[in-house]
Design brief:
The complex is a heterodimer of chains A (366) and B (69).
Chain A: E1 6-17, E2 20-31, E3 35-39, H1 46-53, E4 61-66, E5 69-70, H2 73-81, E6 84-87, H3 98-108, H4 113-126, H5 142-155, E7 160-164, H6 172-189, E8 192-197, H7 200-206, E9 209-214, E10 217-222, H8 224-229, H9 234-240, E11 244-254, E12 257-262, E13 265-270, E14 278-283, E15 289-292, E16 303-314, E17 318-324, E18 328-334, H10 335-340, E19 348-353, E20 358-364
Parallel strand pairs in A: 3-8, 3-9, 6-7, 7-8
Antiparallel strand pairs in A: 1-2, 1-4, 4-5, 9-10, 11-12, 11-14, 12-13, 14-20, 15-19, 16-17, 16-19, 17-18
Helix pairs in contact in A: 3-4, 3-5, 4-5
Chain B: E1 7-18, E2 22-29, E3 34-40, H1 41-46, E4 54-59
Classes of the chains: A alpha+beta (366), B mainly beta (69).
C-alpha cells in the first residue's frame, strides 16, 4: 500500500474531567482509505477518542487537523462534521420510515429530492434492506436497525466513518452477516474508517491497522500481524490474545484444503480460498505440539516445522513457548512436558499443528 | 516418540471413513474404549491408515474437556 498523506491528525489531545485524565494521546494519524480499529477493554478511552475526533466531546486540549488544516472556530467545525459520519452501538434512528432515516443526512445537506431518492435506494440495496423501505424504524429488529444506521452513514458518502462498537449488542449470526456486509461496502467504497471494538477477530478481519488502548492512551498501533505477534508489553499481549497470527498468500489449492506461503514457508489449512488471495492464519498455542527433532514424520499433523525456542514464560499450570520457525509461533506445553523434553531457550525442536487447527480469515485479492 | 503431548494412547484402527476433505478414524483402545480422530484425507493416505493397523492417538492435555454426570 502506498503511504498517503494523513486525512486526520490529532496532536497532544487531552480530555480531563473532574481531575481525571480520560484521554491522553500525544500523536495520532489516520491515512486516506485506511481502516483502523481501536481495541481495548471497557473504559480504555475508545469512545472518548471517537467522540473527541468528531467534536462531540468538548472541551479538550490539543488540536485536530483535517487534510492538513487545523479545525478551529465554529465554522470549520461544522464544515468538518459534515464530512464525517458516525455509527453507534445503539442505532439511534428517528421515529419515521427506514427511507426517511437513510435520507435524513442528505436532507440536512439540502440535496435535491430526486438525487436523495437515488442515493437512498442505492444504500438500501447495498445493505440488503430495500424491502424495509416503508417500514417504521420502531418495528425493526436489532440487525435491521443497525443496517439502517449504516445505510444512513454511507448515504452522505463520508470522508471518514467513525464506528463505536457497532455490532456489540447483536447476536452472533446477525453480527457475522453484518460484519461481512460492512467489510464488502468499506472495501468497495474505499471509505476511510475507524472503529472501536473489543472483538479481536472483528478487528483482524476488518482493519488494516490496529491501535490498542488502555487508560486513555494508545499503547501500540501497527498492522494486525505486528500488534498480535509483537505486542509491546504484557497488557497488549494479554488483550490481543496469544494466538500466532500469520499473513500469507494462497499458492495451491487441494480440494478442501489450501497451502499458503508465509515468508517462503508453506502452511496447510482446511477451508476454501482462491489462488493468490491474501489470508490471515490464526493458530492457537493449545493446538501446537512440540517434539524433539527429528521425530514427527509419523504423525497426521499436516504442518511440521523445525524451530528454535526463543523464550519460555511460565503461566502457572503451563508454559508459553515462543518459537522461531522462520516465522513466529507460540505453543503451550505443560510443566511436565517442559521437563520431560528438557525444553530450554535456544533448543532446536519440531513444532506441529493440524490443518484443521488453523483458523482462516480471508482478506481477498490484493 | 518424544513429544510434548501428555496423552499418547496406543490402539488399533477399527474403521476409517473417508469424506471429501477429512477422514474419520475410529481407534479401539485396550479395555474396549474407543476414540475418534478427524484428520485430513491426505494424512490418512500418507500414513496408510487402514483397519487393524496399530496407531497412537495423541491428545494435548489442554484439549481434553471434562464433564460430570
Amino acid at each position: 500500500m502506498i503511504e498517503s498523506s494523513p486525512i486526520l491528525e490529532a496532536r497532544g489531545i487531552q480530555v480531563i474531567r473532574g481531575g481525571t485524565i480520560l484521554l491522553d494521546i500525544s500523536s495520532f494519524l489516520i491515512h486516506e482509505g485506511e481502516i483502523l480499529s481501536l481495541i481495548g477493554p471497557n473504559g480504555a478511552g475508545k469512545t472518548t477518542l471517537l467522540q473527541t475526533l468528531s467534536y462531540l466531546l468538548k472541551p479538550f486540549q490539543g488540536e485536530i487537523l483535517f487534510r492538513g488544516r487545523k479545525i478551529e472556530a465554529n465554522h470549520s467545525v461544522l464544515e468538518y462534521r459534515r464530512r464525517l459520519a458516525m455509527v453507534f452501538q445503539e442505532p439511534l434512528l428517528f421515529d419515521t420510515t427506514v427511507f426517511n432515516n437513510v435520507a435524513s443526512g442528505l436532507k440536512i445537506r439540502g440535496m435535491k429530492k430526486s438525487e436523495i431518492h437515488d442515493r437512498v435506494i442505492e444504500q438500501l440495496d447495498r445493505f440488503g434492506i430495500s424491502h424495509l423501505k416503508d417500514r417504521s424504524a420502531k418495528t425493526l429488529s436489532g440487525g435491521e436497525a443497525q443496517r439502517t444506521s449504516l445505510a444512513r452513514a454511507f448515504s452522505i458518502q463520508p470522508e471518514i466513518l467513525l464506528l463505536d462498537e457497532p455490532f456489540a449488542s447483536l447476536d452472533p449470526p446477525t453480527r457475522d452477516a453484518l460484519v461481512e456486509d460492512l467489510e464488502r461496502v468499506l472495501r468497495g467504497t474505499r471509505t476511510t474508517a475507524m472503529f472501536a471494538t473489543h472483538d479481536r477477530l472483528e478487528a483482524l478481519r476488518l482493519s488494516s491497522r490496529i491501535a490498542v488502548m488502555d487508560g486513555g492512551r494508545i499503547l501500540q498501533a501497527g498492522s494486525p500481524e505486528e500488534v498480535m505477534n509483537h505486542p509491546v508489553d504484557e497488557f497488549v499481549a494479554s488483550f490481543v490474545g496469544v494466538e500466532t497470527i500469520l499473513s500469507g498468500k494462497v499458492i495451491r489449492q487441494n480440494g478442501g484444503t489450501f497451502i499458503a506461503s508465509i515468508e517462503g514457508h508453506e502452511i496447510e489449512a482446511v477451508g476454501e480460498a482462491h489462488l493468490g488471495e491474501t489470508v490471515v492464519l490464526c493458530i492457537r498455542p493449545e493446538n501446537v505440539t512440540l517434539s524433539i527433532r527429528p521425530s514427527q514424520e509419523g504423525t497426521s499433523a499436516r504442518n511440521v516445522f523445525p524451530g528454535r525456542i526463543m523464550k519460555i514464560t511460565s503461566l502457572g499450570l503451563y508454559q508459553r513457548v515462543h518459537l522461531d520457525c522462520a516465522f513466529p509461533l507460540v505453543a503451550y506445553v505443560t510443566n511436565h512436558s517442559l521437563k520431560e523434553l528438557s525444553l530450554t531457550e535456544g533448543k532446536e525442536v519440531s513444532a506441529s499443528f493440524k490443518a484443521t487447527a488453523v483458523n482462516v480469515i480471508r482478506k481477498g485479492e490484493s | 516418540m518424544k513429544i510434548s503431548a501428555r496423552n499418547v494412547l496406543k490402539g488399533k484402527i477399527k474403521n476409517v471413513k473417508h469424506g471429501s476433505v477429512n477422514s474419520e478414524v475410529m481407534i479401539g483402545l485396550a479395555g474396549g474404549a474407543q476414540i475418534v480422530s478427524i484428520i485430513t484425507k491426505k494424512s490418512a493416505q500418507s500414513l496408510r491408515l487402514s483397519k487393524g493397523k496399530g496407531v497412537y492417538a495423541v491428545i494435548k492435555a489442554s484439549n481434553v474437556m471434562i464433564a460430570t454426570d
